[in-house]
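Final paragraph of the annual report: two paired records, presented back to back.
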Amino acid sequence: MRRLGPQPRDLNHDWWAKLTWAAATLNQTSLPRMQAAQFPLAYYRAAGLLWVTAARRSDEIRRLRVGCVRREWAPEMRDEEGTLLEPEERLCYLRVPTNKVGGEFYVPIPTYTADAIEAWERVRPLRQDRPLDRKDQTPTDYLFMFRNQPMGTTFLNYSAIPVLCKAAGLVDERGEPLHDAVGRITSHRARATLATWLRSRGCAIADIAKLLGHSDLRFLPWYMREDRHRFARSIRKYNLLDRMVMAALDTAGLKRGAGEPCVFYYLGDGPDGRPRRFRWVLLICLKDVRFGRCRLPAMASLGASRGTERPQ
């Protein structure tokens, strides 16, 4: 029996951008009458933004606690371009509850997601029961608690996601959420989509694993679809062999006659950071030099019998 390999269930990036926009701009008119009667708008917006931006399992979202957002700022903090952050630009973190692979930990989340969570906390009813958490068996003030009822196991898949799909225009003629080649849009597909998106933007695999909550990198192929073009670009960037067969033709040296170096090969950078190169005296027919590049056989014959080698 052939063993099936990893098949990440990521969503199309255009669909994901629309779902993120829908979660961030969700308003009262976006909620069907039945959903609007069940939960407040702030409840839907916070749950929706957590789903599209935090890469969390549905069980982790359901078991988040009141006060799970932390904002931090330090004088040495800088943004992606190296600019110092102002105090009002504090980084935001989400406290993820104990899950199936480990204890509590923090992951970064966008500021607008943290704002939505805190907006729901301000209107969340205060006097509610504190049920025992099924993982650590302690009385817990669940973030998504309304009318003494914690978020149900089907809320994301059958309530929140259909609302977001409708607001994003990702529905068929019957008003049902669209399906792709993999199947329907489910809560767990957010993790694969975010992992694939971050990897395509150059995020380190170890950082993606931390975001997903995995300490074992062997699990990542099941979430992250590798971008073949990104892989090829990365190898070409760091592989000096791709440039060692490249040569620059000095036409002025060629005109000066034999004995003058006129072909220069790039051989990487030296200890001083300056490019290394070899100069070759051209004693071969010009047909072996085409568009400023020497063919590999021609390069092999130059130092052997048709020229002299001068390291520089």
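The closing record of the year follows.
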Amino acid sequence: MAVCGLWYFFAGNHKPFFMYIGLLHLHNLLRWVILLLLLWNIVKLFSGSRSLGVSKALLIATHTTVLIGLYQYFFGKMGFALFQEHGSEVMKLSALRFWAVEHITTMLLAAVLITVGHVSFKKGGTTKKTAVLYTIAFILILAAIPWPFRDAAIAKPLFPGMH
């Protein structure tokens, strides 16, 4: 079935194909995994505990989510396609700007902070430095999530299928 989907894509049809919705749901689920792992890591690191395994789980979840998000950005209708469809108007409309620029930029920055924090921690860096980097990443992620209480054009349900 995946081969059929890939053929559909590479045959020249650049509309999102059947995997898009499943990946969107996985992207949403991994958001919660990342938030919980970030909180867990922050608490452990500020308490001075050195648990590389939890930090590695956070890194894996983050990188998986980034890869799914990049796929959605470049092949979905709520990312790069907004620039193609609306041109410079994207920057004038807050909802379009959120999806085309703000969400991806903020989330990539948070992923970089998580990666730098993990690598620093792995190489024997201080727990405080990693905790600070993770805390900044946590705040950035909270700011860039399309929470249900945001503007209607930005808001998404807490879990897929909820309205």
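Residues 23-144 form one domain. This concludes the annual technical report; the extension proposal builds directly on these records.
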